[in-house]
Recover the amino acids of this structure.
């Protein structure tokens, strides 16, 4: 039986169990992330270490957490059907324009912070960390007026009823890979790769390929205030992006449409357009400003 390496959080285990069911059964192996720096990539490294140590054959990742470059000896072999990639609002208001002035909004994401403040400079965006339950609890206790989370995580946890409204991509471009899972194996393990490929979705793979190509050329990290979202419709692919400062004072948006058969090229084209418009300078300023991870 295939062993799946996963983080030990409720969401990660739920996602890994979903993949196991798609495969017709698998053993879950919780990978340790202890002793790593306090950033998202520590979770990825724990799963990848388990694969490289041959403690598991398949790694399941939230695709938005995967760095642009992977360790030698590992590769992504499939992306299952994608869940809703949108960011959602939980709390006061029926739309972003309807939210009361100076509402306190919790998020740990520079990308969300930048786009919230670009749309609504009056909002009081406060740093909020923790798992989904922890963040919802902070809202319920009245510490905040609202929080912003990924629709995908809430839906996979069976908590879609908590969602107030989805924030349109015109106001908040999702993170690259948001809503998608990436299945990773050791390079050369054709047996596991073949099994994993059976639950892959061609459309989701093309979307993720385009998004990761854009992020790679922009040299973005998990903490960069960047949103990149691709959508395949038939034979066409549309990809859009946001790059901005964490305080919302300066930003760029762009989108391109291309042939879905060459998804990576679409991502590269979009990134080149952003770079020519000054994205590198904005990202350097964002890094200099610092802020929540």
């Amino acid at each position: 039986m295939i062993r799946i390496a996963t983080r030990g959080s409720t969401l990660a285990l739920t996602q890994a169990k979903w993949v196991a069911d798609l495969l017709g059964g698998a053993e879950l192996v919780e990978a340790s992330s202890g002793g790593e720096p306090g950033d998202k990539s520590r979770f990825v490294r724990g799963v990848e270490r388990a694969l490289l140590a041959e403690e598991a054959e398949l790694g399941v990742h939230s695709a938005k957490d995967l760095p642009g470059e992977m360790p030698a000896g590992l590769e992504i072999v499939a992306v299952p059907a994608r869940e809703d990639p949108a960011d959602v609002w939980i709390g006061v208001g029926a739309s972003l324009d309807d939210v009361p002035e100076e509402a306190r909004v919790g998020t740990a994401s520079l990308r969300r912070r930048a786009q919230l403040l670009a749309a609504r400079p009056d909002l009081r965006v406060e740093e909020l960390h923790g798992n989904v339950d922890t963040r919802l609890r902070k809202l319920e206790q009245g510490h905040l007026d609202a929080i912003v989370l990924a629709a995908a995580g809430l839906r996979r946890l069976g908590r879609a009823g908590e969602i107030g409204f989805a924030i349109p991509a015109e106001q908040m471009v999702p993170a690259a890979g948001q809503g998608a899972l990436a299945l990773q194996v050791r390079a050369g393990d054709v047996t596991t790769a073949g099994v994993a490929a059976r639950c892959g979705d061609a459309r989701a793979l093309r979307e993720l390929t385009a998004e990761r190509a854009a992020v790679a050329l922009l040299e973005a990290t998990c903490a960069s205030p960047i949103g990149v979202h691709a959508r395949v419709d038939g034979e066409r692919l549309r990809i859009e992006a946001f790059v901005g400062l964490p305080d919302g004072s300066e930003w760029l948006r762009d989108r391109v449409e291309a042939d879905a058969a060459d998804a990576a090229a679409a991502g590269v084209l979009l990134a080149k357009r952003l770079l020519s418009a000054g994205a590198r300078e904005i990202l350097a300023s964002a890094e200099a400003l610092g802020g929540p991870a």
